[in-house]
């Protein structure tokens, strides 16, 4: 492989030096174009509202971000807010709060800008990775396959920017942590490629911890972890890039220094990983909810699900119901994806040992490693999977798709006869895919327009499956004063909760009690509040207070006084 590098003539090397500046300028121009297109596609999101899927917890009712000062920084780093440790995300939301108050436009604007910047970084990163691959392949292969850096950058940047699977991460204010995490992780990868290149040019095998580029990579990585712990596997990602396309693991190069470079990254990942696990203890699901086998089957389905939705983004929705331990080992819905994952992994291993290809195993390994933290093996929350989980992991498949499209175009350009038609056909297909992505993305942005559209999407796609969807939409109607409209949703939510033995069913009774109270149907309200009190695992002052209000409005003063006194005692106790 080293001989292929020697075949570069001095004339070719001189040509590369001469074209380096305009090429770099051209790639950055393409990257700016992808960012502008991405931002324009997401303009409708600026008119979206907050939704009752964590936005109220993160922003509307979050007093921690309401004042920008020393206390904010202290609580962001030292407290677990909403059972999360994401200090930089809280600070960014506090900046928005200081500028915009509770106007959702400002928060969406920040998300849009961050996502547009991320598409810029993806375009630059794709071009840099192709450059590294070109250098590792040598001139013999270059004569056969020509890769246009600009074309790959443009395709990868646009695919990332307008992919419908990413709408949840951008159009949902709560997912500020996704776009902010990638905002630091992506330039860290770009900077790492520059660091390795400078290291290679110096010809030194010594570790340079004081190198400016190295320190920049480390700093950006730590900032990404402070935004969200999604990038805890970043040290392994760097090793994958070392393997391909940088090809640093060769017989004539020492491996130990390359591994030691990753130690500071690994320490950062371990520290943040432990903090995250401690913070999320309250949301961790037990094996009673999902057994190890269930988690494995769900993870297998999720791996194929995300890949398929990158290709065919239909049926995307904000909440995918976890099946719990109801999955059968014979269920083809879960068993076949797991088999497919094993087959792809087996093919990649075979490719490595037979030296057929390196790019496919590298992309597959990148995908597995980056998405592993959210595959549900340490199940946090009630979802089986989520579109937002694929935001950063989709990077590998997207760049691979851009490279493949460019290789197809390049090979067709050199062909004769009817194959030349494929040259234009490749461009047309890529444009149609991007146009289709844009259309679906615009529709998905409208799904996140407000709480009603959000949960209506879940109900339309999976009716009678998600009790939470009916509950949340019913709660939205109650808060809006549409009490009559909330009753059908709350009844269906109760039916599903009874069918699934939902432990927190008392919350549904309490909410329906509020609806009946708002409709002046006091007796029914009292009955529902009584059910909530009976089913709650421990006495809740708000339930007694609500029932006391219902008794009072029904003219039952003695019962009202008893409940209100009890509610006050419970409040004093807590």
Q: Which properties best describe this structure?
A:
single chain, elongated, mainly alpha, about 0% strand, Serine Threonine Protein Phosphatase 5, Tetratricopeptide repeat, disordered N terminus
Q: Nutshell version of this structure?
A:
With 574 residues, the chain is mainly alpha-helical. It folds into two domains: 2-281 and 392-447, no CATH class; 463-573, Tetratricopeptide repeat domain (Serine Threonine Protein Phosphatase 5, Tetratricopeptide repeat, Alpha Horseshoe), CATH 1.25.40.
Number of domains in the coordinates? 2
The ordered H/E elements are HHHHHHHHHHHHHHHHHHHHHHHHHH
Cα-to-Cα separation, first versus last residue: 70 Å
* Number of helices in the DSSP assignment: 26
Mean pLDDT over all positions: 89
* Oligomer description: single chain
Helix content: 55-70%
Global shape? elongated
How many runs of DSSP E, i.e. beta strands? 0
Structural class: mainly alpha
Unreliable residue runs = 1-21, 139-145
Instruction: Estimate what percentage of residues fall within beta strands.
Output: under 5%
Biggest β-sheet strands, sense, barrel = none
Question: Which value, in Å, is the CA radius of gyration?
Answer: 27 Å
């Amino acid at each position: 492989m080293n001989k292929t590098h020697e075949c570069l003539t001095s004339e070719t090397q001189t040509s590369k030096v001469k074209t380096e500046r305009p090429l770099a300028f051209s790639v950055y121009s393409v990257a700016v174009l992808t960012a502008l297109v991405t931002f324009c596609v997401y303009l409708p999101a600026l008119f979206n509202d907050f939704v009752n899927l964590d936005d109220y917890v993160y922003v509307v009712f979050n007093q921690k971000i309401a004042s920008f000062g020393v206390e904010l920084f202290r609580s962001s780093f030292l407290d677990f807010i909403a059972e999360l440790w994401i200090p930089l995300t809280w600070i960014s939301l506090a900046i928005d709060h200081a500028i915009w108050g509770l106007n959702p436009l400002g928060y969406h604007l920040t998300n849009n800008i961050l996502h547009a910047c991320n598409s810029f970084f993806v375009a630059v990163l794709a071009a840099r990775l192709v450059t590294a691959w070109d250098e590792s392949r040598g001139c013999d292969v270059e004569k056969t396959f020509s890769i246009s850096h600009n074309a790959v950058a443009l395709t990868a940047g646009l695919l990332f920017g307008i992919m419908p699977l990413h709408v949840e991460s951008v159009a949902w204010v709560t997912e500020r942590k996704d776009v902010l995490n990638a905002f630091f992780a992506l330039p860290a990868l770009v900077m790492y490629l520059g660091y390795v290149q400078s290291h290679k040019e110096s010809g030194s095998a010594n570790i340079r911890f004081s190198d400016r580029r190295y320190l920049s990579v480390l700093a950006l990585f730590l900032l990404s972890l402070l935004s969200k712990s999604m990038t805890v596997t970043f040290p392994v990602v760097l090793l994958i890039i070392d393997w391909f396309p940088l090809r640093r693991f060769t017989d004539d190069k020492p491996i130990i220094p390359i591994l030691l470079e990753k130690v500071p990254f690994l320490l950062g990942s371990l520290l943040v990983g432990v903090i995250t696990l401690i913070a999320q203890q309250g949301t961790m699901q037990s094996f009673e909810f999902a057994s190890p086998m269930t988690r494995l089957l769900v993870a297998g389905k999720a791996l194929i699900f995300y890949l398929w939705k990158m290709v065919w983004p239909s049926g995307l929705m904000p909440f995918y119901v976890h099946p719990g331990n109801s999955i059968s080992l014979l269920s083809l819905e879960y068993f076949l994806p797991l088999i497919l994952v094993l087959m792809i992994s087996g093919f990649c291993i075979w490719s490595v040992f037979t030296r057929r290809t390196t790019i496919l195993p590298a992309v597959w390994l990148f995908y597995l490693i980056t998405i592993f933290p959210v595959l549900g093996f340490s199940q946090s929350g009630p979802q089986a999977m989520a579109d937002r989980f694929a935001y950063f992991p989709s990077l590998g498949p997207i760049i691979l798709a851009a490279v493949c499209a460019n290789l197809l175009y390049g090979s067709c350009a050199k062909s004769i006869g009817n194959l030349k038609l494929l040259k234009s056909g490749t461009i047309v297909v890529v444009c149609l895919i991007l146009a289709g992505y844009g259309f679906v993305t615009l529709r998905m942005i409208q799904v996140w327009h407000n709480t009603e559209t959000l949960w209506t999407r879940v109900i339309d796609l999976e009716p009678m499956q998600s009790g939470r969807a009916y509950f949340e939409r019913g709660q939205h109607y109650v808060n809006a004063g549409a009490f009559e409209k909330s009753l059908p949703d709350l009844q269906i939510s109760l039916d599903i909760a009874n069918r699934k033995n939902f432990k927190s069913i008392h919350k549904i009774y309490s909410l329906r009690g509020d609806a009946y109270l708002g409709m002046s149907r006091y007796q029914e309200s009292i009955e529902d509040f009584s059910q909530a009190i009976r089913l709650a695992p421990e006495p809740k002052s708000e339930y007694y207070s609500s029932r006391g209000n219902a008794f009072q409005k029904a003219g039952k003063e003695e019962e009202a006084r008893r409940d209100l006194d009890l509610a006050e005692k419970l409040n004093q106790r807590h």
